[in-house]
Automatic annotation (TrEMBL):
SMART domains for this protein: Flavin_Reduct
Gene3D superfamilies named in the record: Electron Transport, Fmn-binding Protein, Chain A
Domain of life: Bacteria
This protein's UniProt keywords: Flavoprotein
Pfam families: Flavin_Reduct
Domain Flavin reductase like: 9-163
GO molecular function annotations of the record: FMN binding; oxidoreductase activity, acting on the CH-NH group of donors, NAD or NADP as acceptor
Protein name listed in UniProt: Flavin reductase family protein
InterPro entries reported in the protein's UniProt record: Flavin_Rdtase-like_dom, Flavoredoxin, Split_barrel_FMN-bd
Family, similarity comment: Belongs to the flavoredoxin family.
Cofactor(s), names only, from the UniProt record: FMN
Length: 193
């Protein structure tokens, strides 16, 4: 038996993404967002949705560029802090001791210490209601040398954070349970036997 909860955004899990921008004075800013993810593979694009009231929203509208930074479990405190205070009032990089690095290809910083960084130019802005969705084409993806093998990321070494909206808790990833585009073949074999 299922219980109706009404319209809710219950997508599990949601990623913990740290969106970095520059303001009009060239100051780096970071904001944690869970409303985001992959939205196109060719060209490679990601989408983030932010409330208009955020400082980052204004930076995105002005600069038309952002980075998505994937924090590892090691930086859960910093990622949480980035979502708690406004860059309008705080220098979040000074407070956390993390390092903003200016992108060589667009007008946005990325976080040196975070293992994965996506450099994105905004190609579409969609007003949705309380949130504005920014679609960014990924112009470059950076990953630490220590967490890749043959140019491919190793998720167990990245140790990305995930977020549960209902409980407002952060989690790490679990163990691998199977290979995609392989496990389903077992069903076809069962049916044909």
């Amino acid at each position: 038996m299922k219980k109706s909860l009404g319209p809710k955004t219950l997508v599990y899990p949601t990623p913990v993404l740290v969106v970095c921008t520059y303001d009009n004075e060239g100051n780096p800013n970071a904001m944690t967002a869970a409303w985001g993810g992959i939205c196109c593979s060719s060209p490679p694009c990601v989408a983030i949705s932010l409330r208009k009231a955020t400082y980052t929203h204004g930076n995105l509208m002005s600069k038309k560029a952002f980075t998505i930074n994937i924090p590892s479990e090691k930086y859960v405190r910093e990622a949480d802090y980035f979502g708690m205070v406004s860059g309008k009032n705080e220098d979040k990089f000074a407070k956390t001791g993390l390092t903003p690095v200016k992108s060589d290809i667009l007008d946005a910083p990325y976080i040196s210490e975070f293992p994965v960084n996506l450099e994105c130019k905004i190609i579409q802005v969609i007003e949705l209601g309380l949130h504005t969705q920014f679609i960014g084409e990924v112009m470059d993806a950076k990953i630490d040398d220590t967490i890749q093998e043959k140019g491919e990321p190793i998720i167990e070494q990245i140790k990305p954070l995930i977020f549960a909206l209902d409980s407002r808790n952060y989690y790490g990833i679990g163990k691998q349970i199977g290979q995609a585009y392989s496990l389903g073949n077992e069903i076809g074999k069962e049916v044909n036997s």
